[in-house]
Amino acid sequence: MNKTKRIFSIFAAASLCTGMTTLVAAYTENRALEEPVNLPGIYTEKKSKSYFLSETIDLQYDNPFLKKDTIDWKDFRVSSIKGVLVYSPTEYDEYVKQIEKKPTPHITKESPLYVMADHMKYSNVSGDISASGDVDVKHVTDSFATDYVYGNTISKKIIIPGEVVYTTPTNHVKADSATYDGVTTIGHFEKMRGWEQGLYYFAGDSGDYNRNENKMVINHAYLTTKHALAKVPDYRIEAERIEIYPNDHYTAYDIGLYLKNTRVISLSKYTGSLIQSDSIGLWTLIPTPVYDSDNGVGFKNSINIPIGSIKSGLSFNSKFAYYSKSGFKPDIGFRWETHPGTFRLHYVKEESVVNDRHVWIKKSPSFSFDSRKFYIPKTKLYVGAGGEVGRWEEGHITGAHKMWEVYLAHDPIELGPHLHLNWRIGYIKDYYAYNHAIRSNAYYSIDLTGGIKWFTGWIGYTNNRLQGETPYTFDTYDIKKPLTFGAKVQITPRDAFSVAYTYGTSNHKLEHLDYTYYRDLHSFYGWIQYRQKERAVRLYIQPKDFTF
């Protein structure tokens, strides 16, 4: 019988409501139970495994956060039976919404424990219950799915002696066995492994989840990200104990950062972010190779260390790069994430991104602000702003520098199932203490991107209307009005190739012709680019699940 029919048949049968525990089953038997009933043929004890490393990946391709649930609970509506209230899935959804508004983690009349099963035995005298078959136990937004469970409605404790799948709005966990205490709202798991938000994967010998504190503690554990997961993960954190605060942060104790089976670094304690857009994590310490013809062979890595709690948004940030030709290029300072945007105070040697001369400038120091997107109500238009104050040094040219920027943009505009448009307009103004120069740039850009299956194409145009001159080569535009266009072909599931052109509309000259080969490296993306006119080669490797 499929899952949807099973749910309907359960709710269409008999039920028992104890006030704090709602029991729903296709078959129920009322009898005095001295001990929890073990239903023969339902539960078979599974041999325990070591889940510390290679055998913890049975959920690798079972990540519910990456696919929609095919079961729509709202399709089922069941009325009360013989005067006893039976909660339909629709009513349960409404109940969850109310609980989320005013959380009541303990089992109470307002926050009951739901047990749904194919077969059930219970005792009105002792409060003992046992359920078998296809069993679902629900409390608030938490759910346990298994094939056998027993417990007591008075002590509010349940025991799941076999394999169980435990889900919350942000977690999907499998364990060899589990217990749940409705008084303390603590669940205990043996040999557990699972997903946090579908991005982070963890496994450990045992663990506890405290619903009151929204905290999961995993013992003798490891933590990695979804694309690194393998029999031996590409990279991982191993720790004596990992404390996970879902959708917020994790803290690991007595830890080691591993690349495959090689230990890279050891720390007594580290706190990292679980916010997917955040870069506070130990993964960024992994050295990544880079190469280009001008800078030479190099490696780069970074580390962000929170100052105070993760919620403070304040962290110490350091990025390091070393090139065989250009030398050591540090970026060290502080970052403060706030609701309006990000503030940074740092010392940095930075490479130009507006020209191809591989010019490096020293900013000592630089204080900058980049706002978040502020959406115009009831539209997909947003505005943003930024600014920087600091001291620049490029060879013998040294002096204070100030700048500010404002811009207006729109979320990608869908022009069809395979085509979307992006645009942005803005204004930048720079003030240079050297020669008291001032430069302004009223710019706009527009690009069109589309593709079907194995083919992607793009075309874009940017217009920089510059007034005034900069004394630095670092922020001198090589191409003021570039037109870019190209195409990318997916050769195999892991390999792709692209050709891209950059045409200067001011001087009517082909500026760049780039050939790029892309390779999917499991947990990283790699690409090699050959710039034909300059006869220059570049190699990049970028992690899939985090940024430097």
Short structural description:
InterPro entries: LptD. With 548 residues, this protein is mainly beta.
Q: Would you mind describing this structure in some detail?
A:
There is one protein chain. The protein has 548 residues and is mainly beta. It has two domains: 231 residues, lipopolysaccharide transport protein A fold (Sandwich), CATH 2.60.450; 265 residues, Beta Barrel (Porin), CATH 2.40.160.50. It is 4% helix and 57% strand. It has two helices and 33 strands. It has a 16-stranded antiparallel β-barrel. A six-stranded antiparallel β-barrel has the order 5-6-9-10-8-7. It starts with a helix and ends in a 5-residue tail after the last strand.
